Amino acid sequence: MPQLNPAPWFFIMLTSWITFSFILQPKLLLFTSSNPPSNKTLTTKTSPWNWPWT
């Protein structure tokens, strides 16, 4: 069963994870968000729903 042999795909998976972790991730984290989070608290007034069948 060739699926149980990790030799063909394990090195590729390990290389891609190392590439992502050490090269791509720091570059992606340098981007700033175009919609930064605000400290404003949202206050919403909720009212109960009058169901027509009750």
Q: Which class do the helix and strand fractions yield?
A: mainly alpha
Strand content: under 5%
Q: Please give the number of β-strands.
A: 0
Uncertain stretches of 5 or more adjacent residues: none
Rounded to the nearest angstrom, the distance between the terminal CA atoms is: 62 Å
Largest sheet geometry: none
Average pLDDT for all residues: 81
Task: Tell the overall outline.
Answer: elongated
Q: What is the CA-based Rg, rounded? A: 25 Å
Spell the H/E element sequence. H
Provide a count of the helices.
1
Helical content stands at 40-55%
Transmembrane segments: 6-24
Subcellular location: Mitochondrion membrane
Main location: mitochondrion
Family: Belongs to the ATPase protein 8 family.
Detailed description of the structure:
- Belongs to the ATPase protein 8 family.
- It comes from Oxyruncus cristatus.
- Keywords: ATP synthesis, CF(0), Hydrogen ion transport, Ion transport, Membrane, Mitochondrion, Transmembrane, Transmembrane helix, Transport.
- One of its GO terms (molecular function) is proton transmembrane transporter activity.
- It holds the Pfam family ATP-synt_8.
- The chain has 1 helix and no strands.
- By secondary structure, the chain is mostly helical.
- The chain is elongated.
